[in-house]
Amino acid sequence: MIHLKTKEQIDGIRKACHLTADMFNELIPKIHAGMSTWEIDQLFKNYIEGHGGTPAWYHEDYPGAVCISVNEEVIHGLPSKKKFIKEGDLVSLDVGIDLNGYISDTTHSLLIGKVDPKVKELQQVTAECLKAGIEACKVGNRISDIADAVYSIASAHNYGVVYDYCGHGVGLDVHEDPNIPNCPFRGPNPRIKAGMVLAIEPMINLGTADVETLDDGWTVVTCDRKTSCHEEHTVAVFDDHTECLTDLDYNGQSVLK
To answer: Is residue 120 pLDDT above 90, yes or no?
Structure first.
């Protein structure tokens, strides 16, 4: 069941999303080669709890505040004191904040130092996919319009578009209806309505679209072990525009007509 949010609920979700954007703006410059993924997780955990929030992934029994996925890891990479990021890595940070019962969800993929040009292009194209998906998210369109917008850009670059995982509704829970695939699909294809709050999140691979889960039960990796990139924003749909709630520059370019 799709939960259309009230103005008051969107106001609460917006506050959680803006706190998430503030957090990324403050913490991204502190992330560097040589850090363990556990250290990164602690940075975000301390920020969230220091600002009155709770890491949203705790609702999912995830053992960390941040899903930290490196290179071939697509999503749900586990923080570890033994795992260190290094020069040339692509590091995806997937974070949500529960602030007074309202939940944000966003992912930013960082390039650590000098990276392979192919990886840099992958990150740029994934960002373009996200932008196109958000632009397609407007009243009157269908969920498939978001999927088609993402897929058309990624497939034009011969990238693999992850089909086993997708975006979703968000705001009052971590994962809500509807599902938002990033590629053509069969199944429910609801029309986009005012009051929807959605997490749009392309997961784009340098090679195959196929993925598998490691023995830890969480970490999803590409089957060919080539690099994957993940970008995500939470958006709210209104009658006359769509607002990107987690935009890092939310005081500037967060509203799409």
So the answer is: yes
